[in-house]
Amino acid sequence: MSVGVVMLVHTALHRAEQVIRHWSAAGCPVVIHVDKNVGRKTYDEFVASLSDLDDVIFSKRHRCEWGTWGIVAASQSASALMLKKFPAVRHVYLASGSCLPLRPIGDLKDYLAKRPRTDFIESATTADVPWTQGGLDFERFTLRFPFSWRKQRFLFDRYVELQRRLKMHRRLPDGIIPHMGSQWWCLTRQTLSAILEDPERSVYDTYFKRVWIPDESYFQTLVRLYSQNIESRSLTLSKFDYQGKPHIFYDDHLQLLRRSDCFVARKIWPHADQLYDHFLNEENPLKGAEPNPGKIDRIFSKAVERRTRGRAGLFMQSRLPRPGHENGFTSAPYSVFEGFTELFEDFEPWLARMTGTRVHGHLYATDRVHFEGNQTTFSGALCDNAKLRDHHAQLFLINLIWNTRGERQCFQFGPTDTQFASWDLAKDPNAQISVISGAWAIPLFQSNRNFSDIRANAAELQRIESEHISALRSSHAKARVRVWTLADFIETPMEALQTVLDEMGAKNLRRVTEAPKMADLTGFGQFLQNLKNQGMHPYLMGDFPADNAPAPARPTRRKPYLVR
Hints:
By secondary structure, this protein is an alpha/beta fold. The protein has a domain at 335-533: Rossmann fold (3-Layer(aba) Sandwich), CATH 3.40.50. The protein is built from 22 helices and 19 strands. The chain has a five-stranded mixed β-sheet with strand order 3-2-1-4-9, with helices on both faces. The protein has a five-stranded parallel β-sheet with strand order 14-17-13-18-19, with helices on both faces.
């Protein structure tokens, strides 16, 4: 007999009985503490169910509530009874009713027999632990916590605020340095008896009764006074989420638990029949390996990250993240073209042919959503109704990109469209935005409308595009943006188009040898001059000569020759 088990039980008593019999069958005495919140009838039935085991006894009951002294008192009572009734025990293993042995008990006995003076308890100073919640790291030792965090939260918070305001601080008992760690430990008889029989125990108990979550600091602190050899780790595999709540293991975690090589795991779902049937079988193959929970830490870290950050571009419709706190606005790169369909007559089919991407029209047009091929519905049941789109313009774009993962989406945008998504496009790192500023004037130039109406419309469109370009150039913009004026673009259109395609990163892309058909701009310079004459200043287009005449050709220089 070398290992005794102290088990704290408060629920799922039928599973606790199953595990207790497993410990007892391996020759380990078990002292059980049953939470006083468990009804008397249920408790008596539980005691009767284990009455056939001579090495299983019950300790004095305490009322246990998370974060309070009751859990420490229960551990003290059961541990003292273990040391008194079973003098052959050399190590005491603290477990809960939801703990499950993962390896043969004989393997644990052999492991501890080789380390007769080693205490296995996670014990680190408050500055070295990352898991404290609510900002109460060292303050849990210097303030008083007489109220329950769960049942009296209002009083708990107000009393903490009062102590901070009055600068009240408790004095730590002499000789101790607060440490914290997992409450599930395995201590040697010498260390545990020294803690329980310390002449100053009443002082320590009085102090820790008003410490917050004392079960994570009482033994972890006092063990530093008496232990000859501490390994600051727990032999129990227990994982916690970002809120400090324990992960629960289910049947589909079987292979994960096998990989950990740990002796005991917590917390097991009471209905995980497959886990209990497998690991309580003495023939299970986990034997001889050094406990290494680090093997699965990476998986848990990814799970916590997925839980807290989610996936880029995937939003929970019922609970949107705070603006700026989402893990990526969209899920994949996409391209936005502004002014290209106004300048080129067949730009969309040309771009689709050159890049093999899905090229839409103006997705944010005021009349409807112009999907590729003039479709009325698109991937993910997105419809072309403008009102539904504008109900949440940002989510429309997010859903479009998410529903078409693996296929790059391209669409047109401009000042004639609704601008609800303007800033979102600018701040999205996945967006690649190419702008020909002032190209919106070409449809006005080609229209047959009253010039006074054209002037008013041009002024409004220029204002909208100017604000949009300001957003694209702001310090908050994260999109990849390239802006040409209309005059600069038509000066070298092939070079500009090649730049656009290169930035898209299209695969197997060749040099541009053909360009889409450009709109006829004869007289466009005079059109801009007329706008100026009417009192408007069209500056986004760049410099166009008023007569739009081609530059005079240089005279051909004749080849020099010699006259004899």
